[in-house]
Every structure is written in C-alpha cells, then in structure tokens.
Amino acid sequence: MKVLVLNAGSSSIKFQLFEIAGWSVIASGNLSRIGEADALFTFRWQDANGQAQQLDEQQPLPTHHDALERMVAQLHATGALTDLSELKAVGHRVVHGGEAFHQPTLIDDDVIAAIRQVIPLAPLHNPAHLDGILVARELFPGVSQVAVFDTAFHQTMPRTAYRYAIPDYLYREHQVRRYGFHGTSHAYVGQRAATMLGRSFDRTHLITLHLGNGASATAIRNGSSVDTSMGMTPLEGLVMGTRCGDIDPAVLLYLMQHLEMDHAQIDQLLNRHSGLLGLCGVNDMREIHRRIEQGDTKAELALGIFCQRLKKYIGAYTAVLGEVHALVFTGGIGENDAETRARTCAGLERLGIVLDETANRSHAPGERLISHADSPIKVLVIPTNEELEIARQTFEAVGARL
Ligand code: ADP
Questions:
Q1: CATH superfamily of the 2-149 domain
Q2: Is the confidence at residue 185, as pLDDT, over 50?
Q3: Is the N or the C terminus of the chain less surrounded, counting Cβ atoms within 10 Å?
Q4: Ligand 1 pocket test target in 286, 290, 341, 386 with most atoms within 8 Å of CB
C-alpha cells in the first residue's frame, strides 16, 4: 500500500510517493513553472534493479490538472504505481487551517469550504492547495484525501500566546490572532528529539528552531506547542531569507505616510525584499558566508542580526518553558550551518546551553548531539522530513476512520 504526498503551490507541485511498509520513498519530484510555456517536470524513481533514475523534462503544462496528469502517467510508466487500488490515500500539505483544524483531516466538501474560508489569511497558499485537492479528487477517484495543516500543531497554544494586544473585536470578528506555521516540521523534529533523549514526547520540553528560507522557533511543553514565533502570517518572528520577521508596526505607518507606499508595495517589501536579502543582497546562507570571508560588512551584519534574533527567542522560550530538555536545530541552515549554530549559542552557557565545538563543526550527516557532555540543555541537529510526517499523519487519519 502506498501514500502520495502533494504540496501544491501557485505554479508548482512537489510530490513524494511512499511505500507504507518501511516508509520508503518510491518516487518523488516536482512540477514547476505550471502555466508557463516551458514548465519543468523532474521525476526520481528506482528502476527494477534498484538503481536511482531521474527524468528532467520541459513542456507546456497549462494547468495543475495537466501537471498532475503528467505525474500520474509517469508513476504508471515507471511501475511506481501500477494500479490506483495500491494508493491508500493522498496527503495534501495545507499552510493555513485557521482555528478550524487541530489535526490532519479527511477531506470532504465541508473541509474544502473551511479551507476556502481562510483564504483571506493565506491568500497565496490556500487557493493553490485547493487547486491541488480538487484535481487530485478527479484523478484519484475513490482514494481518501487528507489535509495536513502547517498551523495544526500550534492550535494548543494558550490564549496568552496567540492573542495580540489589540482590540478584542479584531479577534472575535476578524480572526486576527497568531496561528504559527511549520507545524509539521516542529512536530516531526520534536518527536525525533524525544526519541533521541529516551523520553516520551508528551513528557519532553523543547525549543525547536526551523531555519530554512522561512524560519520559525517553537516552544514545546510536554509534546505540545505553547508558543511559536510566526504569527497570523509567516511574516512574524525570526529574520528569514526574504522576510523581515519582527518589526515595529509603526515602521509601516511611516512608510505609508512618508514614502507613500501602498499595501501591495509594503507586502512586497516585507515579504520578498527584506530579511537576509534586504540586509546584504543575497538570501542564500552559503553565499553570505563566502562574502563574510571576503570581508563583506553587510553580509557580516546580516548574519549578526539573524543570530541575535534567534538568541532572543531562545532566551524568551527558555523563560516561557521554565525547564528545557533540548534545543533542536533543523531546516537547511539549522542542519548544515555550524557557524550560525555557534554564534547563536555563544554566551548562552548560563542558560544551560553549552555547545561541543568539535561535534558542532563535524559534518556528520543525520541526527546528532552537538552539546557538551555537561550541558544541562542538550543541543540536537535533526534533519526535518515534512513529507514523511505528512505521509504518516495521512495514513493515521485514514486508518482511524476504517
Ligand atoms: P526552504 O525553506 O526553502 O525549504 P531550506 O530548508 O532548504 O529552505 O533552507 C534553505 C537555506 O539553507 C538557504 O539559506 C541555504 O543557503 C541554507 N543552506 C543549505 N545548505 C547549507 C549549508 N551547507 N551551509 C549553510 N547553509 C546552508
């Protein structure tokens, strides 16, 4: 039996097909530039001899329907999927579930309507996810579809963490509150961390740092999210590749008043032209390190601000939790960038965070402990695997129904 995971964006779809036994990936890939004349289709699979194969193809794929049809044809052609009856379920990543969804949910017409209702909160993401869901329903008739929400894990946050200090009616009538994102990743690495510590997740207190292009920190108490750095949208919190993270809201008023910027310009500025990119001209952390080595002071400052913000969140969440068993780094930067980890943890010894420099700098792959043997709070590097977590949650959601 197999589970297909789909992550549909406005012009792209990423996919992975899992074999439930052992959760191995049978095929994966992505379709990008959907709607353009030169859409790209990348498909990876293992042939009958177990050899890894990859297909790269360029062709017009006018709609999500065309794109997914191409993917299904390739799944059949390579034998990754011989018959639809092998497919236990399709799991869809959905960024925003508002307050309606606390867990992975079997998709029916009501669920589709509820995802549509929160489009104002996620205008870029949710319409694309709905496209993916509707096309998948057509292409996989009779196969259960499950929505796995980025916001769901954070629905356990207390009101004191999720409410903004603005008038009450804005929450009651307009759903203005903090929701948090990257929930699938925080939940996944949190569970892995508990396993590494030899604890049960529901007795484990963690600070998890997901540092990719988007970045967020989460405070986990007894296996549940109690605070997280992203807010009503993914713009709040840490410094990110192109997003500013926390900022005085009066800056926006100033930009409107003195630079006469409108809503669309401010949106672009804060979401696409800020963060590391805005500070030093690039958002790729590897390039930032290369520039720092060449003496680029803007790149140095960008990394400094990135780590300072992280440090503040670690301090804040240590205070929120009271007791912390481990600090977890994940995401492209968290998993690979020893320098960022070192700068972030420097000076936190009094908080109980003591890195082992050699372990931190070793390029050992996979899950690992990088704190000093005497560090009261363990520091872990755990590669995230959101697709696997979505596949598992999808399977559980379907299994629970049978
Ligand atoms: P996304 O949020 O798009 O999934 P990723 O989790 O892949 O992003 O993370 C992308 C970030 O990780 C980029 O800033 C990239 O430079 C950084 N990164 C990837 N590999 C390394 C590495 N070896 N060293 C430092 N940074 C890295």
A1: ATPase, nucleotide binding domain (3.30.420.40)
A2: yes
A3: C
A4: 286
